[in-house]
Amino acid sequence: MAFENRSGIDSVQGWVVVFAAFLAAFVVFGVSYTFGIFLKPIEEELHVTHAALSTVFSTMTVISFFLSPFTGRIADRHGPRSVVACGAVLMCAGLVATARVPSFPLLFLTYGVGLGGAVACTYIPAIATVGGWFKVRRVIALGVAVSGIGCGTLLAAPVSAMLIERYGWRPAIEILGWVGGGLMVVSALLLFRPPVLEEKAKVAIGPKLRTRAFALLYGSFFLKGIAVYVALVFIPAYAMDLGATRVAAASLVGYIGASSVVGRLGGSMLAPRFGLFNMYKLAFAILFVSYFLWITGHVYPTLVIFSLIMGVGYGGVAGMAPAVTASLFGVQGLGQLLGVLFTALGMACLVGPPIAGLVIDYSHTYHSTPFYAAAAAALALIVAIPLHKLEPETATLSSQPIEVSMLYRHHW
């Protein structure tokens, strides 16, 4: 029967979980990646510098990814629903409070801690749950789930710009809080525990963290994060400095989000034919090459092309990262392992945007920003290249290794 398998591995219920994870990623990253659109109006009202305000975004990202190992571990053991529900409360409360802050320092608590906690409670627990629901279609299921990041960015960026134009930044961010919190409640209700959760043995991830493969994954993620976050935070202000309108500048972030969906889904769909690790490295290469367009992008149309190409590379890396991690180390303890890996993005945000902001404040120009991001993207590619050679060696560390090549050969 076509619908015989409704609640087991690779079942209809598993695809419901994919939708829930997609929705969770859509909300938390759609909202958090709008920060660049709010940058100038907050600066003007609260009288802060680029460097100071970018540290609020860095705080949010650091908290979100450094808490992820703990939220991922809780979700691995007890299921994701209550964890994601906590994220919904934190998002709504944090953004509503952000809309009412009287001074800059409070943003670290309302936006940094509130939204950062929401991302930590949502993304890794939801994505790791998808991994537990699939075996045959795991790569494409993970690709669909993480494509919520791009779709959320595509919609939230221009919508936020329009809300700011019409109501001001405070009402705009409050609207995002109420709507985002409500959608996350829906996501939590649809995140069912994987059918294998009860059978999982307690997995020690310490030996995996000490492998060369994990070190390379972590390093490439850190460097990629610097390149991506610098673009997401400063490309709208860069465009407005060239004369673009607020909505047009915000649309660049939306274009990054839209094309990242192509990267996330395209990489996952082409991996069976060309190899998961080959496509993963290609995504890093595309990310690096795109920054040459930003370097030469002194007119708005060139920035649009940059955003579209950069999004494909960034989306491809992000979309295939869970599958690459699962291929190297298996799915047992995947939530906790991904949580540790994603702390690299927190570290990247702690370093990337604040340094770029300091340079902008000192030079009073954005022209050095793309060079900085391009250098980080180049180093990320170099670090990622050796990963495929380590796959057979490190896969033996997993108590449930994934034979990716076998799955592709027999099931795609």
Properties at a glance:
about 400 residues, mainly alpha, Growth Hormone, Chain: A, 18 helices, globular, disordered N terminus, disordered C terminus
Please give a structural write-up:
The chain has one domain: Growth Hormone, Chain: A (Up-down Bundle), CATH 1.20.1250.20. Helix 6 crosses helix 14 (334-341) and helix 7 runs antiparallel to helix 8 (169-190). It has 18 helices and no strands. It starts with 11 loop residues before the first helix and ends with a helix. The longest helix is centred in the middle third of the chain and has 30 residues, at 138-167. The protein is mainly alpha-helical. It is 81% helix and 0% strand.
N/C terminus separation: 20 Å
Specify the oligomeric state.
Answer: single chain
From the spread of the alpha carbons, the general shape counts as globular
CATH topology: Growth Hormone, Chain: A
Q: Count the beta strands.
A: 0
Query: N-to-C SSE series?
Result: HHHHHHHHHHHHHHHHHH
Query: CATH first level: which class?
Result: Mainly Alpha
**How much is the average pLDDT?**
83
What's the helix count?
18
In the CATH hierarchy, the architecture is Up-down Bundle
What is the percent of helical residues?
over 70%
- Return Rg in Å: 20 Å
Question: Which residue ranges are poorly predicted, with pLDDT under 50 across at least 5 consecutive positions?
Answer: 1-5, 392-412
CATH superfamily: MFS general substrate transporter like domains
Task: Report the sheet with the most strands, covering strand number, pairing sense and barrel closure.
Answer: none
SSE class: mainly alpha
Portion in beta strands: under 5%
Number of domains: 1
